[in-house]
């Protein structure tokens, strides 16, 4: 379970940068299976992380691999005509990151999770990959964040 206290202090831009680097780090982890601490150390050394929410980067980078089985189990039925192993490594990293935020980071509104994943897909993914990711995460939100989607009852 993620720690939530103190997470609201970071700016949206610092969180966006954390996600940006986390997708790249998760991609590296998926392809090479490298040690997470080593990947994190390389990112801290090789990139300007001064404007990155480092706590969030760390949480995503370590949380997604830790919860990989659960995330894959929740996402697989939502893929419609594809399987996880048919997704590109970039799409898989983005979907897992979005699923992690959707399920473990309830401090982040579901619309933000989806929008950020779409932007990551537009940056790193194939031409229409963002549409696929949007569809998967929207379905996941319906299942995992139904109370938030319905909103407060009057």
From TrEMBL:
Example GO CC term: the record gives: cytosol
**What are the TM regions of this chain, as residue ranges?**
none
The keyword Transcription regulation belongs to this UniProt entry's keyword annotation = yes
Which SUPFAM superfamilies does this one have? Answer: NusB-like (SSF48013)
Name the source's superkingdom: Bacteria
Spell out the molecular function terms from Gene Ontology.
RNA binding
Entry keyword set? RNA-binding, Transcription, Transcription antitermination, Transcription regulation
Which InterPro entries does the UniProt entry name for this protein?
A: NusB-like_sf, NusB_fam, NusB_RsmB_TIM44
Name the NCBIfam families on file: nusB
User: What is the protein name stated in its UniProt record?
Assistant: Transcription antitermination protein NusB
From which organism does this entry originate?
Venatoribacter cucullus
